[in-house]
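Entry: Xyloglucan endotransglucosylase/hydrolase
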Amino acid sequence: MDETTSSGFHSKLMYRHGYFETTLKLPENRTAGVVVTFYASNEHKYPSRHDEIDFEFLGHIEGQKWVLQTNFYGNGSTNRGREERYELDFDPSEDFHHYRISWTRNRITYYVDDVPIRHVKRVDAIRSDFPSREMKLYGTIWNGSNWATGGGQYKMDLSYGPFIAKYSSFVMSGCPLNETGPAQCNDYLVGLGDDIGPEERAQMRNFRSKLMTYSYCYDKKRYDVPLPECVFDSEEFQHLQKLDPRTFGSSK
């Protein structure tokens, strides 16, 4: 990878819902501006109205924590960003860690090392903004210097390259698209409910109340009225308000 080229791969099959996982080790040293991703998308099939579910690592500079961003949108609704960001309490460039997307008709759950970090339930008012069509799985590394690290403050420095992201242990399990009939779902997905259990919910609240640094659901400068899937959590709100009182200055 350099200033104008990138690298990536994608699955051969498309999936309508599924359980997707990889283990990933990020590039070492200073990686400001270098974006590494694991995501599902159908942009190649629906270029102007695609769906997407994202894990995005936003580069790293010395002395700061790694930032992970999650996002999703459906039917090309990119003008309504649903980003969340977290400062990880481990160094993802030192060893492999697990990242998982669990996507059904009615929910999306993101996991890091088997801990749920974000859970989105589809509500009627979200309409086509919720990803609903078949997607491929992707892994990419590319130059996001104009926005990724510190909002674009820190640029990619090629003298620290080469930048190498290592992926392994893929799981792509779900409902592969069948061109001649309905998608055939595996037993795991058929039995997957639309919510997470109390133990996982407690793990998620602990992660978010300590490590989340941004959520669109609490950003009144961006959305006067929260988007319909947002669920207010006082612990999350108080944590974000302490970090950035200007952005998260009052309760919704």
